[in-house]
Write a structure and sequence with these properties.
Elements lengths: L1 H6 L6 H8 L3 H7 L3 H24 L5 H14 L1 H17 L4 H23 L3 H20 L6 H21 L2 H15 L3
Helix pairs in contact: 2-3, 4-7, 5-9, 6-8, 7-8, 8-9
Length: 192
């Protein structure tokens, strides 16, 4: 990942990747026929590594509040890393020239792996896990683009407060009416 982060996806050659890994170009091509294949494998590996890293920290937390605090601390500690992942993803999307299906598959697999693991670990629906994921990606992006307008830690704390308030309301049953309205609006938009 460091090579792609330093030089940008489009500027990295297979020869440079082989050199960085300390292998011959021929060996690299034997296992990975294209730069896209290497990137896809790297994305999968990073997703697994990221999830494993945070899950080992969350194992001791009992409640969703405690688990989310552990996630938040992980995101704070790894903020620069996740910002580099966001930049790398944007760079990949902008410069990828292969089949659209392949790019879509890489993106979907990374997101699905992270969202599913978080949903299972937190004990929440996939929709809520995706909401957390989308918010965090947006927060990392915002911190890249406009760090002086909103402090990352403050925004993360605000997100946790809002999410935990929603979770508490859902437990009390008051969110079912809201959720039903949202589903009805979705059905109306798609003609259902």
């Amino acid at each position: 990942m460091n090579l792609f982060s330093r030089r940008g996806y489009a500027n990295v050659t297979m020869r440079e990747i082989a050199k960085e890994l300390g292998v011959s170009t021929g060996l690299l091509y034997h296992y990975f026929p294209t730069k896209e294949a290497i990137f896809a494998h790297m994305a999968k590996h990073l997703g697994e590594k990221d999830v494993t890293s945070v899950l080992t920290q969350v194992d001791d937390a009992a409640s969703i509040d405690e688990k989310l605090q552990v996630y938040a601390e992980h995101w704070r500690e790894q903020k620069e890393y996740y910002k580099s992942i966001v930049l790398l993803a944007i760079d990949f999307i902008r410069n990828y020239r292969g089949p659209a299906e392949q790019m879509s598959k890489v993106k979907k697999e990374y997101v699905k792996y992270y969202v599913d693991a978080m949903a299972e670990n937190l004990g929440v629906a996939e929709e809520l896990s995706r909401f957390i994921y989308v918010h965090m990606i947006g927060l990392f992006y915002y911190d890249l683009v406009l760090p002086e307008t909103a402090h990352f830690d403050d925004q993360l704390d605000l997100f946790l407060d809002v999410y935990l308030s929603y979770a508490a309301a859902a437990v009390r049953g008051s969110s079912s009416k809201r959720r039903g309205g949202r589903v009805a609006r979705k059905r109306h938009r798609i003609g259902g």
